[in-house]
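Input chain follows. Return structure tokens only.
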Amino acid sequence: MKYFLQLVLAGLTKGSIYALIALGYTMVYGIVKLINFAHGEIYMIGAFTALIIGGALQITTTLPPLLIFAISLGAAIFFSAGYGVTMEKIAYKPVRNAPRLTALISAIGMSLILQNYVRLAQTSDFLPFRSMIPDFKFLTAGKSLVTTTQLVILVTTFIVMILLTLLIKFSKIGKAMRATAQDKVMAQLVGIDINRVISITFAIGSATAAIGGVLIANHMGQINFYIGFLAGIKAFVAAVLGGIGSIPGAVLGSFVLGMTESFGAGYISSAYEDTFAFVILILILIFKPAGILGRNEIEKV
């Protein structure tokens, strides 16, 4: 039972991180019908920003670790959101009305550019990431140990999902996002600045990815320039699994993927852990291409 509970906790932790990245994928796709394959690199940039800011504060100040964590997280969110908006303006806006293949190639190019930019600016080696969250251990169900970092990941993901849902359903910008996703031309006719809406969408998606990057770096204790690529691909799989374009679907798909990886690695083999995501992607594309909560769209020709 203890081993089972540990696998459940590991699956929930992975699923939470995938959800924070997948939310950006699904929001961008829902509005501009673009798969932003550079989104994983934004996650990676968020982690590196926290490493630099947090490391500098740990060396030069005597601030409490939680305050250092809060400052580092805020900086990561700010810089990642800036990168996301800039990337949209440079790489995606000029090809917004071009064939989808053009936008896809642009996204892949941005992914490679950001990877190599960080590799050259930092290093290709793994760098240690000193946790800024005091790590106390809690006893769950009498046997399974839960660390503070894992609890922070789960609680933060839950709060982010609730806030994002409320933002989209009840705020003015959320209504503008839904209108833009439904019909860009009609949204413009009723006075919505769709360029502003798209930029805000990229900023929000980049911010959630940055939160995931900082949290997982605190949990794992090391990062390198390549961590965003695989995490981004898996989050994309999670978004497709749940139904890309659907926020509840992205969250559901992320937790399904996280639990599948955890139990697959625990009961089959950890050597195939990264394989399970792609097996799921193949199966979902064969049997339910729209995803668990997705809806088939009728395209006029």
